[in-house]
Amino acid sequence: MSSSKKPKDRVEHFREYVTALNKQFVGWCTNQWARKPGMFWSSGMHDYLRHTAKIRREFQDILEDNSDAGAMGASPAHGLDQRPPKYEPQLSLMPISYTKVIHFIRHGEGFHNAGINTPDSHLTPKGWQQAHALAGHMRGCAPNNGVQLVVVSPLMRTLETAAGIFGVADPASAAVAASGAEDMSEDGAQPAVLMLAQSEQASMRVAHEQLFVPPGVSFVAHELCRERLGPSHCDQRRPVTQAAACFPGVDFSLIESDEDQLWAPGNVEAEAQVVHRGMKFLQWLVTRPETNIAVVTHSAFLWFTLTCFGNEYARPVRENLQRWYENAESRTLILSDAGGAGVPDVTWFPGGDKAPRADLV
Protein backbone atom coordinates (compact mmCIF):
# COMPACT_ATOMS: atom_id res chain seq x y z
CA MET A 1 0.00 0.00 0.00
CA SER A 2 1.45 3.39 -1.02
CA SER A 3 2.07 6.22 1.44
CA SER A 4 -0.74 8.30 -0.17
CA LYS A 5 -3.20 5.67 1.04
CA LYS A 6 -1.90 5.71 4.61
CA PRO A 7 -4.33 6.97 7.24
CA LYS A 8 -3.15 10.42 8.25
CA ASP A 9 -3.66 9.68 11.91
CA ARG A 10 -1.25 6.72 11.74
CA VAL A 11 1.46 8.80 10.09
CA GLU A 12 0.88 11.54 12.64
CA HIS A 13 1.10 8.98 15.44
CA PHE A 14 4.47 7.89 14.09
CA ARG A 15 5.76 11.47 14.06
CA GLU A 16 4.52 12.13 17.58
CA TYR A 17 6.09 8.91 18.84
CA VAL A 18 9.49 9.73 17.35
CA THR A 19 9.38 13.36 18.49
CA ALA A 20 8.54 12.36 22.05
CA LEU A 21 11.27 9.71 22.13
CA ASN A 22 13.92 12.12 20.86
CA LYS A 23 12.85 14.82 23.32
CA GLN A 24 13.00 12.34 26.17
CA PHE A 25 16.42 11.11 25.06
CA VAL A 26 17.89 14.62 24.79
CA GLY A 27 16.67 15.40 28.30
CA TRP A 28 18.10 12.17 29.60
CA CYS A 29 21.49 12.84 27.96
CA THR A 30 21.72 16.28 29.54
CA ASN A 31 20.93 15.01 33.02
CA GLN A 32 23.03 11.87 32.74
CA TRP A 33 26.20 13.66 31.69
CA ALA A 34 25.78 15.99 34.65
CA ARG A 35 25.13 13.22 37.21
CA LYS A 36 26.49 9.82 36.08
CA PRO A 37 28.36 10.05 32.77
CA GLY A 38 29.77 6.56 33.27
CA MET A 39 26.28 5.06 32.91
CA PHE A 40 25.58 6.70 29.55
CA TRP A 41 26.63 3.88 27.25
CA SER A 42 25.71 1.01 29.56
CA SER A 43 22.14 2.12 30.19
CA GLY A 44 20.57 4.98 28.28
CA MET A 45 21.91 4.23 24.82
CA HIS A 46 20.68 0.64 25.02
CA ASP A 47 17.23 1.86 26.06
CA TYR A 48 17.12 4.36 23.20
CA LEU A 49 18.20 1.80 20.60
CA ARG A 50 15.64 -0.68 21.92
CA HIS A 51 12.86 1.89 21.54
CA THR A 52 13.93 2.83 18.02
CA ALA A 53 13.92 -0.84 17.02
CA LYS A 54 10.40 -1.21 18.42
CA ILE A 55 9.28 1.83 16.41
CA ARG A 56 10.72 0.31 13.23
CA ARG A 57 8.77 -2.89 13.83
CA GLU A 58 5.49 -1.13 14.66
CA PHE A 59 5.64 1.32 11.75
CA GLN A 60 7.45 -0.88 9.24
CA ASP A 61 4.80 -0.32 6.56
CA ILE A 62 5.14 3.46 6.78
CA LEU A 63 8.92 3.39 6.82
CA GLU A 64 9.09 1.06 3.81
CA ASP A 65 6.76 3.18 1.70
CA ASN A 66 8.48 6.45 2.58
CA SER A 67 12.07 5.30 2.27
CA ASP A 68 14.27 5.46 -0.78
CA ALA A 69 14.09 1.85 -1.91
CA GLY A 70 17.09 2.22 -4.15
CA ALA A 71 19.28 3.64 -1.43
CA MET A 72 18.08 1.41 1.37
CA GLY A 73 17.62 -1.87 -0.46
CA ALA A 74 15.52 -4.86 0.49
CA SER A 75 16.07 -7.16 3.44
CA PRO A 76 16.15 -10.71 2.10
CA ALA A 77 15.83 -13.61 4.49
CA HIS A 78 19.34 -14.81 3.74
CA GLY A 79 20.86 -11.32 4.02
CA LEU A 80 22.51 -11.44 0.58
CA ASP A 81 20.96 -8.93 -1.79
CA GLN A 82 22.32 -7.31 -4.92
CA ARG A 83 24.14 -4.07 -4.32
CA PRO A 84 21.62 -1.19 -4.33
CA PRO A 85 22.07 1.58 -6.94
CA LYS A 86 23.18 4.15 -4.35
CA TYR A 87 25.49 1.78 -2.51
CA GLU A 88 28.14 3.45 -0.37
CA PRO A 89 30.58 1.20 1.51
CA GLN A 90 30.71 1.30 5.30
CA LEU A 91 33.94 -0.54 5.94
CA SER A 92 35.57 -1.51 9.21
CA LEU A 93 38.64 -3.51 10.22
CA MET A 94 39.37 -5.37 13.45
CA PRO A 95 42.35 -7.59 14.36
CA ILE A 96 41.17 -11.18 14.37
CA SER A 97 42.34 -11.77 17.95
CA TYR A 98 39.60 -9.39 19.16
CA THR A 99 36.81 -11.18 17.33
CA LYS A 100 34.78 -14.36 17.69
CA VAL A 101 32.46 -16.16 15.30
CA ILE A 102 29.09 -16.59 17.03
CA HIS A 103 26.25 -18.70 15.61
CA PHE A 104 23.06 -17.40 17.25
CA ILE A 105 20.37 -20.08 17.05
CA ARG A 106 16.76 -20.05 18.18
CA HIS A 107 15.32 -23.32 19.49
CA GLY A 108 13.11 -25.50 17.30
CA GLU A 109 9.35 -25.54 17.65
CA GLY A 110 8.28 -26.33 21.20
CA PHE A 111 4.91 -27.58 22.38
CA HIS A 112 4.22 -24.05 23.70
CA ASN A 113 4.64 -22.75 20.12
CA ALA A 114 1.93 -25.22 19.11
CA GLY A 115 -0.44 -23.90 21.79
CA ILE A 116 0.27 -26.45 24.53
CA ASN A 117 1.63 -24.49 27.47
CA THR A 118 3.41 -26.79 29.90
CA PRO A 119 6.26 -26.00 32.30
CA ASP A 120 9.63 -26.02 30.55
CA SER A 121 8.30 -27.15 27.18
CA HIS A 122 9.98 -29.86 25.10
CA LEU A 123 10.36 -29.86 21.31
CA THR A 124 7.51 -31.09 19.14
CA PRO A 125 8.18 -33.66 16.38
CA LYS A 126 8.46 -30.70 14.01
CA GLY A 127 10.93 -29.05 16.37
CA TRP A 128 13.18 -32.10 16.30
CA GLN A 129 12.95 -32.20 12.50
CA GLN A 130 14.00 -28.54 12.39
CA ALA A 131 16.99 -29.24 14.64
CA HIS A 132 18.12 -32.18 12.49
CA ALA A 133 17.73 -30.10 9.32
CA LEU A 134 19.90 -27.37 10.81
CA ALA A 135 22.44 -30.02 11.82
CA GLY A 136 22.91 -30.96 8.17
CA HIS A 137 23.36 -27.32 7.24
CA MET A 138 25.90 -26.74 10.02
CA ARG A 139 27.98 -29.76 9.00
CA GLY A 140 28.14 -28.72 5.36
CA CYS A 141 28.86 -25.02 5.71
CA ALA A 142 32.12 -23.49 6.93
CA PRO A 143 32.68 -21.86 9.39
CA ASN A 144 29.66 -23.58 10.96
CA ASN A 145 31.43 -26.93 11.11
CA GLY A 146 34.25 -25.54 13.26
CA VAL A 147 32.22 -24.95 16.43
CA GLN A 148 34.30 -25.42 19.57
CA LEU A 149 31.74 -24.47 22.22
CA VAL A 150 27.94 -24.69 22.41
CA VAL A 151 26.37 -22.36 24.98
CA VAL A 152 22.78 -23.25 25.67
CA SER A 153 19.90 -21.87 27.72
CA PRO A 154 19.00 -24.33 30.53
CA LEU A 155 15.43 -24.81 29.28
CA MET A 156 14.42 -28.14 27.75
CA ARG A 157 13.59 -26.84 24.27
CA THR A 158 17.05 -25.28 23.89
CA LEU A 159 18.87 -28.27 25.37
CA GLU A 160 17.05 -30.60 22.99
CA THR A 161 17.71 -28.28 20.05
CA ALA A 162 21.43 -28.14 20.87
CA ALA A 163 21.53 -31.93 21.12
CA GLY A 164 19.61 -32.33 17.87
CA ILE A 165 21.98 -30.01 16.01
CA PHE A 166 25.37 -30.95 17.44
CA GLY A 167 24.87 -34.37 19.03
CA VAL A 168 25.83 -37.52 17.14
CA ALA A 169 23.91 -40.80 17.17
CA ASP A 170 26.85 -42.85 15.87
CA PRO A 171 29.89 -41.87 17.95
CA ALA A 172 32.29 -44.15 16.08
CA SER A 173 31.61 -42.69 12.64
CA ALA A 174 31.60 -39.15 14.01
CA ALA A 175 35.01 -39.59 15.61
CA VAL A 176 36.48 -41.13 12.47
CA ALA A 177 35.10 -38.32 10.32
CA ALA A 178 36.53 -35.69 12.65
CA SER A 179 39.99 -37.14 13.18
CA GLY A 180 40.57 -39.64 10.40
CA ALA A 181 41.56 -42.18 13.04
CA GLU A 182 40.06 -45.58 13.66
CA ASP A 183 39.55 -45.07 17.39
CA MET A 184 36.37 -43.40 18.65
CA SER A 185 38.52 -40.97 20.65
CA GLU A 186 42.21 -40.34 21.25
CA ASP A 187 42.39 -43.03 23.93
CA GLY A 188 39.89 -45.33 22.22
CA ALA A 189 37.24 -44.74 24.89
CA GLN A 190 33.55 -44.34 24.18
CA PRO A 191 32.61 -40.64 23.71
CA ALA A 192 30.59 -38.97 26.44
CA VAL A 193 26.81 -39.14 26.32
CA LEU A 194 25.29 -35.76 25.50
CA MET A 195 21.60 -36.66 25.90
CA LEU A 196 20.05 -39.83 27.26
CA ALA A 197 17.39 -41.58 25.21
CA GLN A 198 13.92 -40.32 26.10
CA SER A 199 10.49 -41.90 25.80
CA GLU A 200 7.35 -40.29 24.43
CA GLN A 201 4.80 -38.49 26.58
CA ALA A 202 1.71 -37.52 24.62
CA SER A 203 1.60 -33.77 23.84
CA MET A 204 4.57 -33.21 26.14
CA ARG A 205 7.70 -34.98 24.91
CA VAL A 206 8.94 -36.76 21.79
CA ALA A 207 10.78 -40.07 21.91
CA HIS A 208 14.40 -39.75 20.77
CA GLU A 209 17.49 -41.92 20.74
CA GLN A 210 20.60 -41.31 22.81
CA LEU A 211 23.05 -38.74 21.45
CA PHE A 212 26.78 -38.36 22.05
CA VAL A 213 29.15 -35.42 22.39
CA PRO A 214 31.03 -34.84 19.11
CA PRO A 215 34.84 -34.68 19.23
CA GLY A 216 36.31 -31.31 20.15
CA VAL A 217 33.04 -29.66 21.23
CA SER A 218 32.06 -28.58 24.76
CA PHE A 219 28.53 -27.85 25.98
CA VAL A 220 27.81 -25.28 28.69
CA ALA A 221 24.43 -24.18 30.06
CA HIS A 222 24.12 -20.50 30.98
CA GLU A 223 21.20 -18.75 32.63
CA LEU A 224 22.07 -15.36 31.14
CA CYS A 225 20.81 -16.49 27.72
CA ARG A 226 17.48 -17.95 28.85
CA GLU A 227 14.21 -16.51 27.54
CA ARG A 228 12.72 -13.27 28.79
CA LEU A 229 10.93 -14.09 32.02
CA GLY A 230 7.17 -13.84 31.70
CA PRO A 231 3.94 -15.30 33.04
CA SER A 232 4.03 -18.35 30.76
CA HIS A 233 4.92 -21.63 32.46
CA CYS A 234 6.91 -22.70 29.40
CA ASP A 235 9.68 -20.32 30.52
CA GLN A 236 9.96 -21.86 33.99
CA ARG A 237 12.94 -24.19 34.00
CA ARG A 238 13.02 -27.47 35.86
CA PRO A 239 15.61 -28.13 38.60
CA VAL A 240 19.17 -28.35 37.35
CA THR A 241 19.54 -31.84 38.83
CA GLN A 242 16.73 -33.08 36.57
CA ALA A 243 18.10 -31.38 33.45
CA ALA A 244 21.64 -32.60 34.14
CA ALA A 245 20.38 -36.18 34.53
CA CYS A 246 18.85 -36.00 31.03
CA PHE A 247 21.85 -34.18 29.52
CA PRO A 248 25.00 -35.58 31.17
CA GLY A 249 27.20 -34.08 28.45
CA VAL A 250 26.24 -30.50 29.34
CA ASP A 251 28.14 -28.54 31.99
CA PHE A 252 25.58 -26.93 34.34
CA SER A 253 28.11 -25.62 36.87
CA LEU A 254 27.52 -21.94 35.97
CA ILE A 255 23.91 -22.12 37.18
CA GLU A 256 23.88 -21.16 40.84
CA SER A 257 20.61 -22.65 42.12
CA ASP A 258 19.01 -26.03 41.54
CA GLU A 259 15.46 -24.65 41.62
CA ASP A 260 14.41 -21.81 39.32
CA GLN A 261 14.82 -18.71 41.48
CA LEU A 262 14.15 -16.25 38.64
CA TRP A 263 10.72 -17.24 37.35
CA ALA A 264 7.64 -16.29 39.38
CA PRO A 265 3.91 -16.43 38.52
CA GLY A 266 2.73 -13.14 37.05
CA ASN A 267 6.21 -11.65 36.93
CA VAL A 268 7.36 -10.07 33.65
CA GLU A 269 11.02 -9.19 33.20
CA ALA A 270 11.48 -5.54 32.22
CA GLU A 271 12.74 -4.94 28.69
CA ALA A 272 15.70 -2.95 30.00
CA GLN A 273 16.64 -5.87 32.25
CA VAL A 274 16.65 -8.29 29.29
CA VAL A 275 18.95 -5.90 27.41
CA HIS A 276 21.25 -5.64 30.43
CA ARG A 277 21.34 -9.42 30.74
CA GLY A 278 22.11 -9.75 27.04
CA MET A 279 25.04 -7.35 27.32
CA LYS A 280 26.42 -9.27 30.29
CA PHE A 281 26.14 -12.47 28.28
CA LEU A 282 28.04 -11.02 25.31
CA GLN A 283 30.72 -9.74 27.68
CA TRP A 284 31.02 -13.25 29.08
CA LEU A 285 31.36 -14.69 25.57
CA VAL A 286 34.26 -12.32 24.91
CA THR A 287 36.15 -13.79 27.89
CA ARG A 288 35.93 -17.33 26.56
CA PRO A 289 39.06 -18.81 24.95
CA GLU A 290 37.06 -20.38 22.10
CA THR A 291 36.75 -18.39 18.87
CA ASN A 292 33.92 -20.31 17.17
CA ILE A 293 30.86 -20.54 19.41
CA ALA A 294 27.23 -21.55 18.95
CA VAL A 295 24.55 -20.05 21.21
CA VAL A 296 21.22 -21.89 21.37
CA THR A 297 18.68 -19.54 22.91
CA HIS A 298 15.28 -17.82 22.48
CA SER A 299 13.61 -15.29 20.18
CA ALA A 300 12.80 -12.50 22.65
CA PHE A 301 16.24 -12.70 24.26
CA LEU A 302 17.87 -12.49 20.84
CA TRP A 303 15.73 -9.57 19.70
CA PHE A 304 16.28 -7.42 22.79
CA THR A 305 20.01 -8.15 22.72
CA LEU A 306 20.71 -7.73 19.01
CA THR A 307 18.64 -4.57 18.51
CA CYS A 308 21.33 -2.75 20.50
CA PHE A 309 23.64 -3.21 17.53
CA GLY A 310 23.76 -2.20 13.89
CA ASN A 311 21.47 0.80 14.03
CA GLU A 312 23.98 2.84 12.03
CA TYR A 313 24.19 0.21 9.27
CA ALA A 314 22.41 0.23 5.93
CA ARG A 315 18.95 -1.26 6.11
CA PRO A 316 19.72 -4.71 4.59
CA VAL A 317 22.55 -5.22 7.08
CA ARG A 318 20.62 -3.85 10.04
CA GLU A 319 17.52 -5.92 9.40
CA ASN A 320 19.52 -9.08 8.84
CA LEU A 321 20.98 -8.48 12.29
CA GLN A 322 17.82 -7.37 14.10
CA ARG A 323 15.08 -9.37 12.37
CA TRP A 324 12.95 -11.58 14.64
CA TYR A 325 14.17 -15.20 14.69
CA GLU A 326 12.11 -18.10 13.36
CA ASN A 327 12.19 -21.50 15.06
CA ALA A 328 15.57 -23.21 14.50
CA GLU A 329 16.88 -20.21 12.55
CA SER A 330 20.63 -19.68 12.68
CA ARG A 331 22.60 -16.55 11.84
CA THR A 332 26.36 -16.28 12.08
CA LEU A 333 27.73 -12.99 13.42
CA ILE A 334 31.14 -11.60 14.28
CA LEU A 335 31.42 -10.47 17.89
CA SER A 336 34.26 -7.98 18.30
CA ASP A 337 35.67 -6.10 21.26
CA ALA A 338 37.41 -2.84 20.42
CA GLY A 339 38.13 -2.38 24.13
CA GLY A 340 41.21 -4.58 23.90
CA ALA A 341 40.15 -7.93 25.41
CA GLY A 342 41.06 -10.79 23.16
CA VAL A 343 42.84 -14.10 22.70
CA PRO A 344 46.39 -14.72 21.45
CA ASP A 345 46.65 -14.21 17.70
CA VAL A 346 48.09 -17.46 16.39
CA THR A 347 48.10 -16.02 12.84
CA TRP A 348 50.48 -13.16 13.75
CA PHE A 349 54.07 -13.28 12.49
CA PRO A 350 56.39 -10.62 13.97
CA GLY A 351 58.67 -10.02 11.00
CA GLY A 352 61.78 -7.87 11.15
CA ASP A 353 64.58 -8.76 13.54
CA LYS A 354 62.14 -10.56 15.84
CA ALA A 355 61.18 -13.10 13.20
CA PRO A 356 62.47 -16.62 13.91
CA ARG A 357 65.19 -17.88 11.59
CA ALA A 358 63.90 -20.20 8.91
CA ASP A 359 66.44 -22.87 9.82
CA LEU A 360 65.14 -22.89 13.41
CA VAL A 361 61.45 -23.16 12.56
Automatic annotation (TrEMBL):
Output the Gene Ontology terms for molecular function.
phosphatase activity
Q: Which GO terms describe its cellular component?
A: cytoplasm
Q: Enumerate the SUPFAM superfamilies for this protein.
A: Phosphoglycerate mutase-like (SSF53254)
Gene3D superfamilies, per the entry: Phosphoglycerate mutase-like
Record family assignment: Belongs to the phosphoglycerate mutase family.
What PANTHER family does the database record attribute to this sequence?
BROAD-SPECIFICITY PHOSPHATASE YOR283W-RELATED, HISTIDINE PHOSPHATASE FAMILY PROTEIN-RELATED
For this entry, the protein name equals: Phosphoglycerate mutase-like protein
Q: Which organism is it from?
A: Prototheca wickerhamii
